[in-house]
Amino acid sequence: MSHNSVSRFGQPLTGIISFFVFLALAMISWFIFSDPRGLVKLFPYPFVMYLAVMILVGLWQHMLFGDWPFHKLKQPVKGVVMTVMNLLLTLFVIHVVFYRILGLGFNFLSQSNIDSLIASGKSFVIAGKSMSLEGLKTSHMAERALVSFVLIGFFTYPVITILFGKWPIRPSNLEQPQAGTAELGWTSLVTLFFFVPFIVPFWGYIYSEVYGASIGMGTPWWGKINGTAHLHWVFGWWEWSIIALFMTANVWRGKPWNLIKIGQPLKGLISLIGVFAIGYLMAIICVKLAPLWIGSDTIAALKSKGDAEYIRFLWYHAAEIAGFTLIPFLIWHHYFEDRSPVKDTDSWSAFAFRTVGVLLAAAVLYIIYYYGNFGKWALGNSHMTSMPNRFIHGESLIWNFWWIIPLLWNDWFFAKWGLFKAQPETEAH
User: How far is it, in rounded angstroms, from Cα 220 to Cα 222?
Assistant: First the structure.
């Protein structure tokens, strides 16, 4: 939150107005780009790929490069320019960096490469039977692989700022864009360090075990840990780790890791282990408790496809449950200014109040989405008919990430323009 701005309408009115403004913007833009009843109809793919990369690129623009080179522009011009640049950079990252540069070495990260192979009419043989590559296109395999890279990046790019205080780039006298470039390089290395063991093996499994056309990548080493070799095991606990990381920077206001009074990078490493522990614990809790409310019909529908499919769903649904916390903790911190009934905003009692509040608000949003069938009547997801179909095909994580884009763009790019105002000079000092 900017230290030289105040809520335009006071609190909690500014927070309430902000919620409905962002909801309206998200609903309108969703109808245009994603809703099957709307204009462009990109739900769920490739919409989710563009959505994921947009947020990641926005994070680079704001958190790594400090809005350079547009940081001196006045609002709302700055916000508009940053948004346009975000869209252009998103297209460049997807269609040039991944599809045509990294794609020179990794077909599984390049949908254009896969589409070219399909167009060439190439096929392969499994157990004496000729197999087509068409399924790689209809299943959006490379687009899904790119999203899995972004999943890792949602954590690894901001973690250096949030837990490591930008070590080892800071403290230094580096200016932009040198500082941002150095941090992008360092965090990309960290991203690769996690992407290779936690993501690549799944795609090795897809191409070697399912399509029989690759022995160049490993297969999931986690298959024997929880009964599923699917990538959704990683999604479940990694998404909760992302939530714990960003709650640290938002409604937790640095707690509990600010209690660690040692230097970097040891402080960051201890905090990192703690965040992963919280993430895995929360995912396990969701996996164990979800069967209590998803219903016997849903469980039977999943188990009819095998126990592995049932376990896969539980881990992915853990990630979806985590997604419902995004709206509450982000708007609570940025637009309700961490309000609580406790006078000391940084006290442990205020920390506990906001934590419980976020979880309760997430539960309410979860109920509205699945039991109120928000995903069908509001978002046009035709799969959400019976309760089993709502849980299995709800795609709530996509909506939750889409909803936060107007909030993040207003905070990151527009400096809360329209909803907050500059603090009078006499009050600022």
Answer: 5
* Cβ(219)–Cβ(231) below 8 Å: no
> 5-7 and 420-422 as β-strands: parallel, antiparallel, unpaired?
antiparallel
SS3 1: coil
Do the Cβ atoms of 57 and 93 come closer than 8 Å?
yes
**What does the pLDDT profile of the chain (429 residues) look like in tens digits?**
445 789 999 999 999 999 999 999 999 999 999 999 999 999 999 999 999 999 999 999 999 999 999 999 999 999 999 999 999 999 999 999 999 999 988 888 998 888 887 777 665 554 444 455 676 677 788 899 999 999 999 999 999 999 999 999 999 999 999 999 999 999 999 999 999 999 999 988 887 776 665 656 788 999 888 888 999 999 999 999 999 999 999 999 999 999 999 999 999 999 999 999 999 999 999 999 999 999 999 999 999 999 999 999 999 999 999 999 999 999 999 999 999 999 999 999 999 999 999 999 999 999 999 999 999 999 999 889 999 999 999 999 999 999 999 999 999 999 999 999 987 655 544
Q: Which helix (H) or strand (E) holds 340?
A: none
Q: What is the largest CA-CA distance in the chain?
A: 81
Q: Which residues pair with 411 in a beta bridge?
A: none
Beta strands in 81-221 (DSSP E): 123-126, 129-132
| Adjacent-strand bridge partners of 421 | 6
For residue 29, count other CB atoms closer than 10 A to its CB. Answer: 16
**Preceding amide of 177 cis, omega within 30:** yes
List, in order, residues 6 or more apart from 327 with CB less than 8 Å away. Answer: 361, 365, 400, 403, 404, 407
Alpha helices, DSSP H only, in 163-219?
178-198, 200-205
CB 326 within 8 A of CB 250: no
Q: Are the C-beta atoms of 204 and 214 separated by less than 8 Å?
A: yes
Give the Cα separation of 50 and 90 in Å (integer).
7
